[in-house]
Design brief:
binds adenosine-5'-diphosphate; alpha/beta; Rossmann fold; binds magnesium ion; 2 domains; 10 strands; single chain; 277 residues; 10 helices
Length: 277
């Protein structure tokens, strides 16, 4: 395993935010942590990157116990993070922001820069624009691009789709898949569970500081409990998608999931030439 999170406990003052999280990420995987607000997803990522310290438990990365390693050394060790809320430098240009991501490395970073521009053509077009004047989606791309500049072995992403227009959400998930395809392992935190599970290999479900479920992501997409709690209801009974007016979900509904056509689904439309045995 590239990253092993071993029974970690983390506190904010007296409040226990993580009450024994155990999770792992293998080389080459996309692993996602899903869960409601306050479940402990951000805290888990911050603890892996060294921004929060442990009360108990340990973290092993690339065969080394990094539990007590300071954050800047973890970046050098290969842990890259695009933080929640982006955290780019508003008064620096796009290119300067990207180069900041490589500051800890001594060697030339023109190759990484070219790669960041290839992944995010938008950033290439806006090289000299101040980071603070980029749109939300562009700033998110910039934050991810900057994290990649350090050539991380694992990239930690905290809610990359947050606040983005639907079209950009799709784009960000596609780019995350591409980053992974090019060899970077990804630990992805998302409230957008549906899309996170669609691109992830494995997933952990967090509830109030604990892991309550873990499975291959595709399995969780079909899990009734997970569907009910995190995927907007699941089966087409009762709970309508937010914003959808009752009875209008047949067409135009945003959740037309193509993978729910079970072969034994009830014939609710009447026979159309079927049943010709
Ligand atoms: N800076 C903080 N001070 C006090 N409590 C915090 C702080 N940050 C997070 N918490 C608490 O820790 C728990 C986990 O939060 P967080 O990791 O941000 O969850 P998530 O990212 O899943 O929404 C929550 O109960 C939250 O209120
Ligand atoms: Mg969070």
């Amino acid at each position: 395993m590239l990253l092993e999170i071993r029974d970690i406990h983390v506190h904010y003052g007296k409040i226990a935010a993580l009450k024994g999280i155990t999770a792992s990420v293998d080389q080459g995987e996309i692993v996602t942590l899903i869960g409601a607000n306050g479940a402990g997803k951000t805290t888990t990522l911050k603890t892996v990157s060294g921004l929060r310290s442990l009360s108990a438990g340990g973290i092993v990365f690339d065969g080394r116990d990094i539990s007590k390693m300071p954050g800047h050394k973890r970046v050098l060790a290969g842990i890259g993070q695009a933080p929640e809320g982006r955290g780019i430098f508003p008064g620096m240009t796009v290119e300067e922001n990207l180069l900041m991501g490589a500051y800890a490395r001594k060697d030339d970073s023109s190759k990484e820069l070219a790669e960041a521009y290839e992944l995010f053509p938008r950033l290439a077009e806006r090289k000299s624009q101040m980071g603070g004047t980029m749109s939300g989606g562009e700033q998110q791309m910039l934050a991810i691009g900057r994290a990649l500049m350090a050539r991380p072995k694992v990239l930690l992403l905290d809610e990359p789709s947050m606040g983005l227009a639907p079209m950009l959400v799709q784009q960000i998930f596609t780019i995350i898949q591409e980053i992974n395809r090019r060899g970077t392992t990804v630990l992805l935190v998302e409230q957008n569970a549906q899309q996170a599970l669609q691109i992830a290999h494995r997933a952990y479900v967090l509830e109030t500081g604990r892991v309550v479920k873990t499975a291959p992501a595709a399995e969780l997409l079909d899990d009734p409990e997970v569907r009910a709690a995190y995927l907007g209801g699941g089966a087409a009974q009762g709970t309508a998608a937010p914003g959808a007016s009752p009875g209008a979900s047949r067409d135009g509904g945003p959740e037309a999931a193509p993978d729910t056509t079970a072969s034994d689904s009830g014939p609710e439309r009447g026979p159309e030439g079927g049943a010709s045995k």
